[in-house]
Design brief:
The chain is of the alpha+beta class. The chain contains 14 helices and seven strands. A hairpin with a 5-residue loop joins strand 2 and strand 3. Helix 5 packs antiparallel against helix 11 and helix 12 packs across helix 14. The structure holds a DNA duplex.
Length: about 290
Amino acid sequence: MKEQELTIEKNQDFELKDIFDCGQCFRWNKQEDGSYTGVIKNGVLNVNCDNENIYFKGILNDNIDTIINQYFDLNRDYSKIKQDLSKIDQYMETSIKYGQGIRILNQDLWETIISFIISANNNIPRIKGIIERLSQKYGTKIIFENEDYYSFPTASQLKDVTVAEFREIGLGFRDIRLYETTHMILNNEINLESLHKLDTQSARAQLLTLSGVGPKVADCILLFSTLKRFDIFPIDVWVRRVMNELYIKNPDENKVSKKLINDIAFEKFGNLAGIAQQYLFYWKRENWFIR
DNA sequence: CCACAGGACGGCT
DNA sequence: AGCCGTCCTGTG
């Protein structure tokens, strides 16, 4: 573990607010100076921007540029993706203009699985609180610039935690799901690393065997973790709302089937559906009051 | 006080 | 196969 810094040139494909507030992650917090600080694996990273540069500093157990390239997916050409998607229609153009600095992160697979099980039937402030308490109680302390941070607990660190203890930190009815999935993974009923080698549908089928993982949670894991599949389209209430408003126009949005939404998404966005979903979701969440 | 928001799951048709 | 009640907590 060592303290490191790195400065890289800023461009339009990287905006802190877009990246950290688009709903994909739960461990990043805005600081008074406008920068964001987050816990990645066993390290802590702080990111700040001005018009010219992006400034990273942190305490990390690998090279800072290796970690940043991987975590922020810096080798992916978002200009090209946005250019292709913007051509599709005016809605994509508008939502991309709004969320132009979104990058889909490569988050640790185990952490993403547990985080999105917690996200079921839940809202972002509460999800963040639960994950913070889970980490404080069972993770490892990291000190960065005189502040205490806690790594996301590993499966082994949760090995002896009881269902009742999960309930105490505010998990509600998700306590048993977390318990069961932790033990399925500890018992090697599913091998997380091997999922990276599978095609999208096979990996999805494996994830669906986990307790507390249904279609929406599985799709978020496939998109937001190191699995990084853009050929899936997570459908939550906001995505259903925006897809119905723009493309389906059913007077009762609850009557619109997931299959119809999914079919339209793939017809329009093809294998960029995942990232298209993220622009639409972020735009609608922050502009729900328009029309 | 009640209504509502947010997905997985199991029991029902 | 689709529909619906239940699970828990925070917010208005």
